[in-house]
Task: inverse folding
């Protein structure tokens, strides 16, 4: 029997030490967490609105065989082959789901389950069979490890030190996400809201559907070494889902999801430091707690606001009723 | 030779919509078979037929949303893709997610997207046009309302305003009268007539036989094939309706039908129901 379930909370080790003794490492970790959650969150807003959340989960699992095969073929862990492997796996996943859906009586949710579990299993088998050749740590692929980020190679711009390579890579993906968002905002809105109208306006909805899928695969593969393939779906769904509970306007939801992602990263980091646990796990626990709070207390759509409003309506009609009776 | 003359005329000005031998199939089973149609400019055409007759399918395949097995569609003498900006579309209200985080004005602004090039955002004048269109359907006070907080009739009017914002010459409307209140119904009719006087052409999918003869000057009776097409007076007869609906015409709708017939044939003295 353990005497204490949780480690003792010590203000100094949890909040002061990370930002004094280990300030540089902490900064990189929190920044990476923010870039991952923020980028996943921006893409995630559209994934949620298009009801593709399960497809996102499927892609995050099926990139495992994609990156393993890419590794076996090229024998390197360079970014480009990994990305290509992931994108191919993502497209194959979506194509297989659609194929099963349209050529059999299987419904989409079951089709998603069939495709991603079998692809994921192929990945697991590949890693164990080629364990000697594959320098991929299954644990790291599944759960990620933000704590290792500051230990990675440092990227240089000429002579100038920029920062750990994974962070530079993620920052580029974030930048591309923002540029794409501004460039195709109206197309994304109209294809997500009303694909029939989009097509009648000459905006091909299928093209944007696959574009989003492709970019989602890229974001997932860039994020998995930080948060792992299992928890990346949390970073895709939580920021958007929480933001959409708070506002009725998509642009505001996108900004809010970014702010919320920052909170996950910072608070999750401190939670993980306190409990000496996985940082991605800490971020996801915080994401769950934040969602719970918003679900209960959101000003318009929260449980309490809805309850109070319904009570008021009922009391109002009861009042009218008693008045009429008199 | 009147036939040759009309031929020459139609060559001068291409009709808003011309369909030739269109066949559409869902997984091998045809849902539309050999559709031949020509819609004249400035008409309000009602597409009427039983459930599953392919009314929405026809509109969707005109816009290339569904692949056709054979035949062709021409919009103002061109394939649909080259005439996109001349066609406005009002989809069925249930086809979209009304919880989507946009307000009424945002939805109407989408009607302008077809005219903006890639990478361009709607500007001030697009917003003014969108507001004017909301004004026309008497929805301007609700411009900033999130769309789920609107009634069914108001949502339909927002869709109509969006079609107006497309500033098209041919409008395709899928069941715009379903589930709307009386005020919305008259507002829609008013706008359809106004568009007609501006020389626009309107094609409206409709399932209510009692109102169809009041709303449309031409009717297309559809049941997988074209059962009848032409002026409402000529098409809206008991025989044609029975051909389109088959045995599915219930006693209730027969009553409605006779009412509709009286209206359509108001100027014919003798009643030739049998």
Result:
């Amino acid at each position: 029997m353990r005497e204490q379930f949780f480690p003792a909370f010590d203000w100094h080790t949890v909040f002061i030490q990370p930002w004094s003794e280990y300030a540089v490492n902490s900064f990189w970790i929190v920044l990476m967490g923010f870039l991952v959650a923020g980028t996943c969150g921006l893409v995630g807003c559209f994934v949620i609105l298009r009801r593709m959340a399960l497809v996102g989960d499927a892609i995050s699992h099926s990139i495992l065989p994609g990156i393993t095969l890419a590794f076996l073929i090229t024998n390197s862990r360079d970014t480009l082959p990994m990305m290509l492997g992931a994108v191919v796996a993502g497209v194959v996943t979506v194509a297989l789901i659609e194929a099963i859906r349209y050529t059999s009586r299987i419904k989409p949710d079951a089709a998603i389950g069939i495709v991603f579990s079998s692809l994921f299993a192929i990945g697991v088998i590949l890693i164990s069979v080629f364990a000697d050749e594959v320098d991929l740590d299954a644990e790291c692929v599944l759960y990620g490890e933000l704590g290792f980020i500051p230990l990675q190679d440092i990227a240089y711009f000429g002579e100038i030190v920029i920062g750990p390579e994974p962070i530079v890579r993620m920052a580029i993906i974030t930048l591309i996400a923002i540029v794409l968002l501004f460039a195709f905002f109206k197309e994304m809105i109209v294809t997500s809201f009303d694909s029939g109208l989009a097509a009648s306006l000459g905006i091909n909805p299928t093209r944007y559907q696959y574009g989003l899928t492709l970019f989602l695969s890229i974001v997932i593969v860039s994020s998995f070494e930080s948060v792992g393939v299992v928890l990346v779906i949390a970073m895709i769904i939580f920021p958007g889902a929480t933001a959409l509970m708070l506002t009725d306007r998509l642009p505001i939801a996108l900004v809010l999801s970014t702010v919320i992602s920052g909170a996950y990263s910072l608070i999750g980091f401190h939670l993980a430091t306190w409990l000496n646990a996985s940082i991605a796990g800490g971020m996801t626990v915080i994401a769950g707690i934040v969602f719970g709070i918003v679900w209960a207390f959101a000003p318009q759509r929260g449980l309490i606001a809805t309850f109070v409003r319904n009570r008021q309506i009922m009391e109002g009609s009861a009042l009218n009723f008693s008045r009429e009776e008199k | 030779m009147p036939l040759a003359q009309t031929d020459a005329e139609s060559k001068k000005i291409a009709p808003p919509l011309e369909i030739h031998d269109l066949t559409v199939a869902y997984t091998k089973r045809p849902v539309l078979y050999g559709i031949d149609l020509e819609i004249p400019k400035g008409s309000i055409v009602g597409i009427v037929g039983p459930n599953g007759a392919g009314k929405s399918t026809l509109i969707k395949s005109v816009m290339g949303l569904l692949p056709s097995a054979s035949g062709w569609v021409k919009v103002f003498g061109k394939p649909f893709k080259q005439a996109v900006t001349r066609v406005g579309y009002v989809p069925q209200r249930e086809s979209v997610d009304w919880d989507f985080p946009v307000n009424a004005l945002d939805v109407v602004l989408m009607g302008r997207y077809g005219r903006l090039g890639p990478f361009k955002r709607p500007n001030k004048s697009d917003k003014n046009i969108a507001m004017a269109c909301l004004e026309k359907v008497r929805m301007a006070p609700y411009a900033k309302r999130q769309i789920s907080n609107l009634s069914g009739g108001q949502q339909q009017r927002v869709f109509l305003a969006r079609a107006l914002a497309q500033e098209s010459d041919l409008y395709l409307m899928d069941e715009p009268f379903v589930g709307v209140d009386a005020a919305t119904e008259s507002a829609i009719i008013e706008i359809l007539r106004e568009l007609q006087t501006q020389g626009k052409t309107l094609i409206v999918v409709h399932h209510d036989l009692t109102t169809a003869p009041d709303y449309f000057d031409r009717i297309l009776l559809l049941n997988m094939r074209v059962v009848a097409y032409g002026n409402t007076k000529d098409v809206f007869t008991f025989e044609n309706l029975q051909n389109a609906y088959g045995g599915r015409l219930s006693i209730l709708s027969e009553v409605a039908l006779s009412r509709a017939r009286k209206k359509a044939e108001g100027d014919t003295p003798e009643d030739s129901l049998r």
Summary: The interface with chain A takes residues 60, 63-65, 81, 84-85, 87-89, 91, 95-97, 100-103, 106-107, 110, 113-114, 116, 118-119, 121-122, 146, 162, 166, 172 of chain B (CB under 8 Å). Strands of chain B lie at 17-26, 29-39, 44-48, 70-75, 87-90, 170-174, 201-206, 218-223, 225-231.
